[in-house]
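Postdoc handover notes: sequence design on the structure in folder B. Input tokens:
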């Protein structure tokens, strides 16, 4: 529910929304119907001074391992990695963190692994250190957690996930994410202190975290909470010290920066295909550059879409093929030997396969099966894999789903697309590029895989932290609104929603008052949606936000199927000199929908404050 109002006491104990202050003391239901002109864009918000942050640090948290893995242990398959890049606001030159805990080489990513000791319950090691520790004997009193970021996904996009159990305790996913980010951030800070970043107070560091496009608003709120618990930022820091960006939007900023190399100009349109290990996210942008003296900007042309058809599903298909071919021996093959076969596939066959050549897989000596079995193509311990079976059973089922997503995005766009940029670990696959190019070369002028495409997201996140206004407008992914009171209509409103307000009018207390409809274009800069309320000083208050994801008629009630409370914004009223307890205080609340993370801005007595959602919403 929204903030309690001192002006109207509902029957029994039903909560009520705040009171609108558009020139009178009437209930908001009397004067503001749905889609009212009073719900209007705001053009006078004060922009944030982003230049007060001297260093920006971007964290691409928990993307799937690249097919060109640098690690040879069995955990390479279906493992999440995290990368970090940074830049100084003064010169905007992006640099990567390449030195990681207990890894002797130089690489831009490190695995998201945590090793917990059971008694006492604590983190024993992390990253590559956790992997190395698990290779040692006597690890029965320890648990290795990986892929814990996936547990923030509310809608089971990744299938049934095992619980995050350590010893006798089951973790909320925020705990391991916060534990990992704390240690990861310490590593990053140690590396930054070795350079010029040591000249700046850490309070002048600004952070940008990437999140999957298919995550719910609640999952994004959980990610912010994990960052706070990790100590990267404090709960008292300004909201803008940590910003979130969706992975495909970050990739778009990276590609736009390099699009001049491909001669893309004002009005040209390009599609991002961000193909990682788990998901493939797609979205289309248009370049805006009317004034040559001003920086180029982007606007979304589609609301984007995604699918579970990343490179990890090729790995899973390969597992099924091996189990099928080796079914006669599978019970006698140790798990470690099977994982060694998978590692060889991931590192040698998967990145080089072109769809035409027969491949050969060396079985480890520990596989404990016949050295030669002509019925399955096994000769002298080498398993023959034909191009046809690899195409039909391993690669094509996944790649065809990517091609279908691209086709659907082109149809959704309903306009000519000048370029497709393929980024991400799987997006760097030569075979995927070849098949996409064959499928769409007659419909798209250029299909490209930018250099260092695996770093497109984290570098794009740095660019976003430096220039948050690069994308000027977006397409709403959901229908948003609040619960409000409106005059009761017999036959349409449920009787149990009825209340009698102080003016003696019977009202429905659960109406879904829509602020923004799915598919609407949202102007990013200074265009929140504003409403005016008042409260009784000095009580803190809150306001809720509801969402509907469907494409059909918008429900009438917040209690109707498909409508869920997705955000609960606590509003802390500051000390106001000269205002006495019980006095009426006017609030101006701006709902900001254009950012990756939902937030509100509240203006009270000349003081402007930003708030993000708290974690007890029902979004799932």
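Designed sequence:
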């Amino acid at each position: 529910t929204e903030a309690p109002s001192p002006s109207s006491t509902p029957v029994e104990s039903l909560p009520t929304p705040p009171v609108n202050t558009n020139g009178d003391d009437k209930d908001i239901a009397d004067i503001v119907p749905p889609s009212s002109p009073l719900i209007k864009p705001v053009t006078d918000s004060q922009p944030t001074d982003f230049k007060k942050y001297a260093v920006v640090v971007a964290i691409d948290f928990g993307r799937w391992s690249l097919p060109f893995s640098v690690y040879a242990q069995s955990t390479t398959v279906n493992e999440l990695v995290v990368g970090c890049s940074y830049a100084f606001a003064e010169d905007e030159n992006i640099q990567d963190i390449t030195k990681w805990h207990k890894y002797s080489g130089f690489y831009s990513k490190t695995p998201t692994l945590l090793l917990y000791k059971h008694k006492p319950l604590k983190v024993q090691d992390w990253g590559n250190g956790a992997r190395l520790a698990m290779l040692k004997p006597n690890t029965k009193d320890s648990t290795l957690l990986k892929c814990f970021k996936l547990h923030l996904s509310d809608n089971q996009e990744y299938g049934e996930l095992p619980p995050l159990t350590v010893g006798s305790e089951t973790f909320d996913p925020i705990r391991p994410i916060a534990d990992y980010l704390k240690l990861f951030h310490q590593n990053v800070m140690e590396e930054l202190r070795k350079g010029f970043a040591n000249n700046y107070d850490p309070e002048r560091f600004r952070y940008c975290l990437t999140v999957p496009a298919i995550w719910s608003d609640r999952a994004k709120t959980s990610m912010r909470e994990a960052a706070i618990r990790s100590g990267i930022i404090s709960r008292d820091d300004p909201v803008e010290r940590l910003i979130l960006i969706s992975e495909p939007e970050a990739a778009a900023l990276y590609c736009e920066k390099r699009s001049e190399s491909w001669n893309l100009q004002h009005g040209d349109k390009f599609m991002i295909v961000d193909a990682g290990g788990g998901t493939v996210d797609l979205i289309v942008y248009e370049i805006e550059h009317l004034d040559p003296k001003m920086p180029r900007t982007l606007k979304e042309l589609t609301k984007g879409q995604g699918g579970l058809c990343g490179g990890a599903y090729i790995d899973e298909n390969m597992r099924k093929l091996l189990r099928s071919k080796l079914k006669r021996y599978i019970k006698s093959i140790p798990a470690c030997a099977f994982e060694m076969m998978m590692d060889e596939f991931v590192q040698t066959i998967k990145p080089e396969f072109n769809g035409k050549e027969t491949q050969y897989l060396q079985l480890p000596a520990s596989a404990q099966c016949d050295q030669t079995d002509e019925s399955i193509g096994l000769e002298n311990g080498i398993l023959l894999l034909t191009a046809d079976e690899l195409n039909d059973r391993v690669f094509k089922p996944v790649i065809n789903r990517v091609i279908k997503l691209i086709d659907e995005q082109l149809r959704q766009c309903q306009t000519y697309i000048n370029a497709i940029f393929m980024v991400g670990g799987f997006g760097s696959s030569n075979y995927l590029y070849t098949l996409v190019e064959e499928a769409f070369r007659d419909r798209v002028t250029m299909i490209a895989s930018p250099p260092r495409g695996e770093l497109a997201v984290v570098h794009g996140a740095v660019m976003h932290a430096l220039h948050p206004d690069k994308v000027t407008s977006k397409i709403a992914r959901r229908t948003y609104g609040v619960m409000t009171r409106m005059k009761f209509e017999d036959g349409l409103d449920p009787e149990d929603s009825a209340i009698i307000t102080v003016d003696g009018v019977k009202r429905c207390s659960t109406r879904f008052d829509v602020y923004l409809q799915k598919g609407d274009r949202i102007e990013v800069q200074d265009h929140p949606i504003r409403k005016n309320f008042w409260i009784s000083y000095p009580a803190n208050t809150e306001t809720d936000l509801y969402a509907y994801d469907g494409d059909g008629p918008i429900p009438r009630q917040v209690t109707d199927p498909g409508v869920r409370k997705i955000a609960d914004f606590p509003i802390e009223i500051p000390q106001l000199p000269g205002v006495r307890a019980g006095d009426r205080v006017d609030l101006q609340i701006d709902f900001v929908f254009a950012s990756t993370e939902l937030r509100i801005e509240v203006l009270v007595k000349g003081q402007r404050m930003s708030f993000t959602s708290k974690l007890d919403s029902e979004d799932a």
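Context for whoever picks this up: The longest strand covers residues 506-516. Don't rerun without checking with the PI first.
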